[in-house]
From TrEMBL:
<keyword id="KW-0677">Repeat</keyword>
<dbReference type="Pfam" id="PF25390">
    <property type="entry name" value="WD40_RLD"/>
</dbReference>
<feature type="repeat" description="RCC1">
    <location>
        <begin position="230"/>
        <end position="281"/>
    </location>
</feature>
<dbReference type="InterPro" id="IPR000408">
    <property type="entry name" value="Reg_chr_condens"/>
</dbReference>
<feature type="repeat" description="RCC1">
    <location>
        <begin position="351"/>
        <end position="408"/>
    </location>
</feature>
<feature type="repeat" description="RCC1">
    <location>
        <begin position="176"/>
        <end position="229"/>
    </location>
</feature>
<feature type="repeat" description="RCC1">
    <location>
        <begin position="282"/>
        <end position="350"/>
    </location>
</feature>
<protein>
    <recommendedName>
        <fullName>RCC1-like domain-containing protein</fullName>
    </recommendedName>
</protein>
<dbReference type="InterPro" id="IPR051625">
    <property type="entry name" value="Signaling_Regulatory_Domain"/>
</dbReference>
<feature type="repeat" description="RCC1">
    <location>
        <begin position="118"/>
        <end position="175"/>
    </location>
</feature>
<dbReference type="InterPro" id="IPR009091">
    <property type="entry name" value="RCC1/BLIP-II"/>
</dbReference>
<feature type="domain" description="RCC1-like">
    <location>
        <begin position="120"/>
        <end position="494"/>
    </location>
</feature>
<dbReference type="InterPro" id="IPR058923">
    <property type="entry name" value="RCC1-like_dom"/>
</dbReference>
Length: 512
């Protein structure tokens, strides 16, 4: 019946009037955000009766992090659109764990056409063994990593999460085992021993074999891992304090960051030489290189102003005081973070986008090239005079550019800003941008999540289609050539696995 209701047929409204309201409300309680949106936009009965709006409100009231969120009715926003926004934030965070982009390589959990099971695929530069296939050569198309299947032992646990640093890669199995491979120039693989070393096949990180890992982030030359208990571990290059361990030297094994003991860390991001961690209460912690303002600390900004911009580094995690959760409304608290080479982005529950750090090419999207030393809100609304409500669903940072998935008029759009010499903004040209511009070739595509590497980018649709663009000289776009593409190009013959197939679910969590 719901499939029929998606058709804008006037007589349906008359039939629905004959049904008890209680029955319709019961049916709607089983609908997800997309289904409620489809009903509201294709049948006048649901608009006039407000049934879908009430159903969306009821769903939102069950989602803890949506507390306090209200639709901006003056800009045409409804409870149904607001639910779709909240659901999209969760979907983007989950789907984005299945694809990772490094400096010159890509790893992804893909299902080849005609098959039903997913496996780790890698493509791009392989000079340091970062593709995990036992070789040190480039690969211009997605190739299943047989060594990962043997390492993970798919009879007991499938690959669930991937990450890429500059020249190293990581994988979490569904059982919470962490595997790393590629170049350990400074210990970023976490296997210990002398560095530099190169590991050309996935190898389990034995120092954490008794710890279940649920999330991993790779910077240029360091790695952050989050345990099921919310502890944060780090290894790799530490000369700028980016490991958060209180010193400025490298570490070859993953060590727990003691400064964060007592905090439940839910997500982390790693840049070239700085790190960010988000705690469950919404507090944002940053550390490492701060010379460009990428740590967002007011006290550092004051120090740099007094001492003529000296190089600064923070070796232990510090809270960003301007974003302390007890000083903010619930919907203004941070819910996601991203790190570029020297800039950072934070996303709030209500869809505001905050930027800080280097801005030489407009990566902050603020309309100028001035760096920001503290989190600054990014204007997402366009300059066309549109009164539509715009909310940020997801943000990703490249080396000197940024991507954002935003909701406008109930639809999701891909936007990009910053450096564009390789076409990494996806706008069809190589012009840098100082503000977020819509990637028009992706309009109309049901984008679920974005992923960014240093100079190439990807978008994943709800059905698992993978679009890639930007720098491709090592084959990192997977399209069987070494060209750079200025617009998104569909990766033929594969689809990205859905997170329902990979991520462990907590039964107590209410999904939108």
């Amino acid at each position: 019946m719901l499939s029929e209701l998606n058709k804008p047929m006037a007589p349906i409204a008359g039939y629905l009037n004959l049904l008890p309201i209680e029955l319709l409300e019961k049916v709607l309680s089983y609908c997800g955000a997309q289904q409620l949106g489809a009903l509201e936009t294709t049948c006048t009965y649901f608009i006039q009766s407000q049934l879908t709006n009430r159903a969306a409100l009821a769903r939102l009231q069950l989602i803890a992090r949506a507390k306090g969120l209200q639709p901006d009715t003056e800009k045409g926003e409804t409870w149904t659109r607001l639910l779709h926004f909240v659901a999209s934030q969760s979907a983007a965070a989950a789907q984005g764990t299945a694809v990772a982009l490094g400096s010159f390589h890509t790893t992804a959990l893909l299902i080849p056409e005609g098959e039903t099971e997913h496996s780790l695929h890698a493509f791009g530069r392989g000079f340091h063994g970062q593709l995990g296939n036992g070789k040190f050569v480039d690969c211009p198309e997605p190739t299943s990593v047989a060594e990962a299947r043997r390492a993970v032992n798919q009879e007991k646990g499938h690959p669930a999460v991937v990450t890429c640093g500059s020249s190293h890669s990581g994988l979490i199995s569904r059982r919470g085992e962490l595997f790393t491979w590629g170049l350990a120039s400074s210990g970023e693989l976490g296997h210990g021993g002398w560095t530099p070393i190169e590991v050309q096949i996935p190898r389990q990180v034995v120092c954490l074999e008794r710890t279940r890992i649920v999330s991993v982030a790779a910077g240029a030359n360091h790695t952050l891992a989050i345990s099921e208990r919310g502890e944060l571990w780090s290894c790799g290059r530490g000369r700028h304090g980016q490991l958060g361990l209180g010193h400025f030297h490298d570490e070859g094994v993953l060590l727990r960051i003691d400064r964060l003991i007592g905090q439940r860390i839910v997500s982390a991001a790693a840049g070239k030489a700085h790190s960010l961690a988000l705690a469950s209460d919404g507090s944002l912690w940053t550390w490492g290189d701060g010379r460009h303002g990428q740590l967002g600390h007011e006290q550092l900004a004051q120090f740099m102003a007094l001492h003529n911009n000296p190089p600064v580094a923070v070796p232990v995690p510090q809270k960003v005081k301007s974003l302390l959760p007890d000083k903010l409304k619930p919907f203004d608290r941070v819910t996601a973070v991203a790190a570029g080479a020297h800039h950072s982005m934070a996303l709030t529950v209500g869809g505001k986008l905050l930027a800080f750090g280097a801005n030489k090419y407009g990566a902050l999207g603020l309309g100028d090239k001035d760096r920001r030393l503290v989190p600054t809100e990014v204007p997402l609304a366009d300059s066309s005079g549109s009164r539509s409500k715009v909310r940020a669903v997801q943000v990703q940072c490249g080396q000197q550019h940024s991507l954002a998935l935003v909701q406008k008029d109930g639809c999701l759009q891909v936007c990009a800003t910053g450096y564009n010499v390789w076409g990494q903004l996806g706008t069809g040209d190589r012009q840098d941008s100082l503000r977020f511009k819509v990637v028009r070739s992706l309009l109309g595509h049901p984008i679920a999540a974005l992923v960014s590497g240093d100079s190439h980018a990807a978008a994943i649709t709800r059905s698992g289609e993978l679009y890639m663009w930007g720098r491709g000289d090592c084959g990192q776009l997977g399209v069987q050539d070494s060209r750079s593409y200025w617009q998104p190009k569909l990766l033929q013959g594969f689809r990205v696995v859905h997170p329902d197939r990979t991520l462990r679910r907590n039964g107590r969590t209410c999904s939108p």
